Amino acid sequence: MSVRNLSVIAGQKTLVQDVSFIVPPKSVVGFLGPSGAGKTTLLKSLNRLLDLNPNFRVQGEVLLDGQSIYAPEVDPDALRVRIGMLFQQPVVFPKSIYDNVTLAVKHLGQVPRSEWPAVAERALREAALWDEVKDRLKDSALRLSVGQQQRLCLARTLASQPEVILMDEPTSALDPRTSAAIEELILQLKTKHAIVIVTHNLTQARRLTNTVLRLAVKDGIGRVVACGPAASVLAEA
Fold first, then answer.
1. Which residue spans within the chain are E strands per DSSP?
2. What is the pTM of this model?
3. Are 113 and 159 in contact, with CB atoms under 8 Å apart?
4. According to the model, what pLDDT value does residue 61 have?
5. Helices (H) and strands (E) in the chain, counts
6. Residue 52 in contact with residue 41, Cβ under 8 Å?
7. Distance (Å) of CA 184 to CA 86, 128, 201
8. Rounded-to-integer distance, Cα 44 and Cα 75, Å
9. At 9, which helix (H) or strand (E)?
10. How does pLDDT run across 11-45, given as a tens digit for each residue?
């Protein structure tokens, strides 16, 4: 993924201005900065979630495998299969564990029905949740703990085998033990996927990221004030 001169405008207000960076394969890129610097807004621009709010406009380019994700012919739903997202709070639907994991593959119809069980097992294994839920896949996902729900959301994203995974402070609502488990998963996932993560935690950024964008608010606008290898950028933080 390549981002070039990206700006996000809401109404008449520029929220994020002139951001450029590259997300290499099999790496973790971190967004750091204070609240209001536009980290989550920037993250949502990378898979067109901002399209859901007609007040937002995006300028510049976001290229995935050399193609603009904002090109008219790009289907946003299909794009979000290739660029998945994990939110700060688990977004679990009032359905079974199995139905939550297979939601996207069912919706898009790209996987034959006969393969859904295998997809669910693979994704739950990748999210380190299979052993905990394999005997209760028909149970409501709402009965899972918060940590399990977050891993279920990760499994739902992984079911579609995305190229890029966006994560918006995925451990902020979790206890230290569960946070450590999610961090370990991220390190495993980056051997197959590119990951972009928003975090306020410098220690976490040091453990997980290869590249860091540090954002700050200048003149009321979120801007990148440092971008480069994590060790260099975090040494100045």
1. 2-10, 13-22, 28-32, 56-64, 67-68, 83-86, 164-168, 194-198, 211-218, 221-229
2. 0.94
3. no
4. 96
5. 10, 10
6. no
7. 16, 10, 15
8. 16
9. strand 2-10
10. 999 999 999 999 999 999 999 999 999 999 999 99
